Recover the amino acids of this structure.
């Protein structure tokens, strides 16, 4: 609950800032996995959009599949980032609601 007292308000803002840093750290630890080619290629990214792992099905591993593998890795990476966006948005909404700040339209 916000207050009209400026000193209390500043205290609340400091608490809010600390909580937002915690949320940001939590977001960094989230992961999402995207796939392409009916699961032949999977890419996992973390909350900072860094690639954590790439899995390519052994069936794909031949020189003649090089261009297709490159395309599938790109598609899987984009899929993982799309999923990460959804997970991040959902996590942020839940955290803000728990702080009583759910009306910020995220």
């Amino acid at each position: 609950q916000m207050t009209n007292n400026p000193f209390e308000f500043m205290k609340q803002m400091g608490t809010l800032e600390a909580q937002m840093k915690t949320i940001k750290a939590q977001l960094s630890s989230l992961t999402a996995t995207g796939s392409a080619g009916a699961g032949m290629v999977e890419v996992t990214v973390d909350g900072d959009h860094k690639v954590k792992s790439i899995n390519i099905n052994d069936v794909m591993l031949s020189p003649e599949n090089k261009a297709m593998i490159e395309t599938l890795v790109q598609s899987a990476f984009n899929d993982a980032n799309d999923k990460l966006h959804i997970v991040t948005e959902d996590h942020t909404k839940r955290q803000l609601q728990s702080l009583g700040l759910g009306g910020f339209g995220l």
